C-alpha cells in the first residue's frame, strides 16, 4: 500500500513537470476549487479573499444567482490568479430560462427528482439545452471571458443526458480543447484510502461512470483524481478532512471546497452555511499552508491562459 501511494505521488509530480522538493520528494500540484461563487455576496467575498491570499487555484460560478453580476465584476480582477468556471446549476433557485416541464413552479427541482429523471432518460432535452446555453451566456456577459472549465452544482454535469447536452453546447460554441470539465469521480481504491463520506463519493463515482472517457472522445480534458466530499457538519474537524483529501492524488488532482461568509442571502438559499466559514478560516490559516508543505503539495491552475472577449 505504501509503495502504491509513492507511485501515485510520483506520477502526479511527473504530470506537472517532475518537480522535487529539497528533501527529494515529488512535489504534487493540485487544483483547489471553491464551488458556489455567486450564491451570495458573503460567499463571493470569502472566495475572493481566499484567492487574493493565494489559498485557491480555481472557483466555479453559479450564473443563475442574483449576486453573480456584481460578484463577476469583482472576480474579474483576479482572472490571472485562478481558473474561473461555470458551476452549472439545475437544482438551486430559479432558472434563467422558461422551463415549464423541468421547473414548473419557477424554481429548480431537488436533486433527487433530477437524478430520477436522468436515470429514466426522461429529462426535458430542449429546456435543459436552452438553460445550459443561457448560463454560459450569463457567464460571458458578466465576466467578459469564456469559462476556463465547467463543473456542476451537486455534480449535475456528470448525469446521463445532461453530460451529452453539455458536450454538444460547448462543441457548438467552438470550445473543444479550450475548456476543461470536472470529472466528479475517482478510483474506488483512492476513495477508500481517504475514508471520507464513502457512500457519497462512491455513489457519485458510479453516476459519473464513463464521463471522462466520453469527454475525451468529444475533445475535452478532465481532471484525474477528485476529492472534497463533506458532511457539512459544523462539529467535524475540517482540517482533518482536508488532510484526507490530499491522500492518493491523481495525475490532475482536484479538490472541491465550499468557503465563504454566511449571510442572510445564503441562509435563504442553501442549507450549507456555518461550515463555509469554518472552511474559509482553515484555508486562511497558517495550518493550511503548513499542511500543504508537509504533504509536498502546491496549488496550481489546470487551464491555459484565458481567452479574452473584446467589448
From TrEMBL:
Gene Ontology molecular function terms on file: deacetylase activity; hydrolase activity; metal ion binding
Species for this entry: Methylocella silvestris (strain DSM 15510 / CIP 108128 / LMG 27833 / NCIMB 13906 / BL2)
Highest taxon above the source species: Bacteria
Classification via Pfam families: YdjC
PANTHER family membership: CARBOHYDRATE DEACETYLASE (PTHR31609:SF1), YDJC DEACETYLASE FAMILY MEMBER (PTHR31609)
Protein name (record): YdjC family protein
Cofactor annotation: Mg(2+)
Keywords noted in UniProt: Carbohydrate metabolism, Hydrolase, Magnesium, Metal-binding
One Gene Ontology biological process: carbohydrate metabolic process
Amino acid at each position: 500500500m505504501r509503495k502504491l501511494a509513492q507511485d501515485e505521488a510520483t506520477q502526479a509530480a511527473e504530470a506537472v513537470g517532475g518537480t522535487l522538493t529539497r528533501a527529494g520528494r515529488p512535489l504534487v500540484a493540485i487544483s483547489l476549487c471553491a464551488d458556489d461563487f455567486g450564491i451570495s455576496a458573503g460567499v463571493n467575498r470569502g472566495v475572493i479573499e481566499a484567492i487574493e491570499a493565494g489559498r485557491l487555484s480555481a472557483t466555479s460560478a453559479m450564473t443563475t444567482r442574483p449576486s453573480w453580476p456584481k460578484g463577476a465584476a469583482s472576480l474579474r480582477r483576479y482572472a490571472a490568479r485562478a481558473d474561473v468556471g461555470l458551476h452549472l446549476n439545475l437544482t438551486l433557485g430559479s432558472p434563467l430560462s422558461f422551463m415549464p416541464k423541468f421547473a414548473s413552479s419557477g424554481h429548480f427541482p431537488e436533486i433527487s427528482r433530477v437524478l430520477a429523471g436522468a436515470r429514466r432518460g426522461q429529462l426535458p432535452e430542449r429546456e435543459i439545452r436552452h438553460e445550459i446555453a443561457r448560463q454560459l451566456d450569463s457567464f460571458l456577459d458578466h465576466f467578459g471571458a469564456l469559462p476556463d472549465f465547467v463543473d456542476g452544482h451537486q455534480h449535475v454535469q456528470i448525469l446521463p443526458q445532461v453530460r451529452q447536452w453539455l458536450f454538444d453546447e460547448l462543441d457548438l460554441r467552438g470550445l473543444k480543447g479550450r475548456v476543461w470539465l470536472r470529472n466528479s469521480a475517482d478510483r474506488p481504491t483512492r476513495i477508500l484510502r481517504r475514508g471520507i463520506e464513502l457512500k457519497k463519493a462512491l455513489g457519485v463515482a458510479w453516476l459519473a461512470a464513463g464521463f471522462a472517457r466520453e469527454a475525451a472522445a468529444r475533445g475535452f480534458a478532465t481532471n484525474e483524481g477528485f476529492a472534497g466530499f463533506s458532511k457539512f457538519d459544523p462539529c467535524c474537524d475540517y482540517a482533518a478532512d482536508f488532510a484526507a483529501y490530499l491522500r492518493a492524488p491523481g495525475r490532475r488532482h482536484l479538490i472541491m471546497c465550499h468557503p465563504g461568509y454566511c449571510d442572510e442571502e445564503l441562509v435563504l438559499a442553501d442549507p450549507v452555511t456555518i461550515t463555509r466559514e469554518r472552511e474559509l478560516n482553515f484555508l486562511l490559516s497558517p495550518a493550511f499552508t503548513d499542511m500543504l508543505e508537509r504533504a509536498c503539495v502546491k496549488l496550481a491552475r489546470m487551464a491555459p491562459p484565458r481567452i479574452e472577449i473584446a467589448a
